[in-house]
Amino acid sequence: MNHEHARIMVVDDDPSLLRLLSIRLAGAGYQVESAESAKVALGVMSSFQPDVVISDLKMEGMDGFALYEQVRQRHPNLPVVIMTAHGTIPDAINATKQGVFSFLTKPFESKQLLDTVEQALKLQPLSSGQENTESWRKNIISRSSKMAQLLQQTKQVAQSNFSLLIQGQSGTGKELLANAVHRASKRASAPFTAINCAAIPESLLESELFGHVKGAFTGADQRHVGLFEACHGGTLFLDEIGDMPMNFQVKLLRALQEKEIRPVGSTQSIAVDVRVISATHKNLRKAIIEGKFREDLYYRLNVVELEIPALAQRREDIPLLAQHFLHKGKHQTDNVTVSGFTQEAMELLITAPWPGNIRQLENVIEQSIALATEPLISEQLISNALRNKPSELPSFAQARDQFERDYLAKLLRLTNGNVTQAARIAQRNRSEFYKLLNRHHLTPEAFRDANDESPLE
Fold first, then answer.
1. CB atoms within 10 A of CB 55
2. Domain boundary residue among 363, 387, 411?
3. Do 289 and 158 reside in the same domain of the chain?
4. What is the pLDDT of residues 219-277, one digit of tens each?
5. From CA 341, how far away is CA 322, in angstroms rounded?
6. How many distinct structural domains can be found in the chain?
7. For residue 50, is the peptide bond before it cis, meaning its omega torsion is within 30 degrees of 0?
8. Which of 205, 211, 208 is nearest to 265 (CA)?
9. What is the widest separation between alpha-carbon atoms in the chain?
10. Is 0.70 topped by the overall pTM?
């Protein structure tokens, strides 16, 4: 954005100071609106959408922090600067821990004021004053420079139709970023559909993506439209692409190259116009070396690559995210009296390691809300939630693999390692059964009794 024409809202119940601040900011080239109370400011903001709000802390009626709470609910990413006298510095510091961008101690020089505003604008390039044009990223809550750079790249690549690969740890918000790409693109009015490749059984993945015709297999009593066809003109997000079975990767490659799909059981191909965005937390280059991912598919998917930072790399976003999850979570429970965090609790949130990233942060906030007995969430509640990790439910793919491995091992024990008998019980042909054994690294010989000399087959 052009900082020279940025919009500034100044709020102070001292008319002379309010006028002086407005003159200083207007002289620096900013568009300035002023308000003598927080309530007036909220009214003005219904028609004037600022890029930065500067408010006094101590005011009659609604004070500066209460104004911040109202602003945060309406515009979570809008930076708010609090002005304070010497006697209220502790309050201002606490406000900063709650997500307020910064504070200015009176009296302050014009340069300090302008430097603070400039810094707020640099960390907030996608401002609420641009909501009509920047609504594409409204679900991404951030003011960090790392995310600002990523979002600038995101908006740029959104204008093309190239395939896009998003790299990032689990829980960082890869699907949110993919959706932002879609919303910023010319395909925004068409469907956006997400699918987790690790959660779909291999036998169903082709039908799910390409569809099938009536009678294609047992139970296919009607035609099924696959996601590629359903997303025609839009965007298809393939999450956990690194877990896609090798057998299906060549079929996906063909669909991307030819821009057409063939439903299961059909002899006719269907042309599709779909932008594919894929994501993974795995190292695909390593997977290629290990023979677990096709190199040609990798280059087809990775025309442009975006890497989303871990939460530990964008700690300045933690107060904003924590307040967002607090506001969201307390309306999902009966505990609506919770209003914020103690200073110690916020400091603990900011310094925690967060291996589970934003997903873990949301879980910690939800646990703390559920157990809170005071208006402010304490450091102890946060500490307990961080220490007592919830039991993790395995993914569908993990659960399926565990079942297959246990089932196959049980069959081999039951048949004393006889593959022919085991395959017959499983109602699978021997070659398919051997493939299953190889996939799970099971050898029939390991299940034979030492004194059993009967043939394995």
1. 25
2. 387
3. yes
4. 778 899 999 999 999 999 999 999 999 999 999 999 999 999 999 999 999 999 999 99
5. 9
6. 4
7. no
8. 211
9. 101
10. no
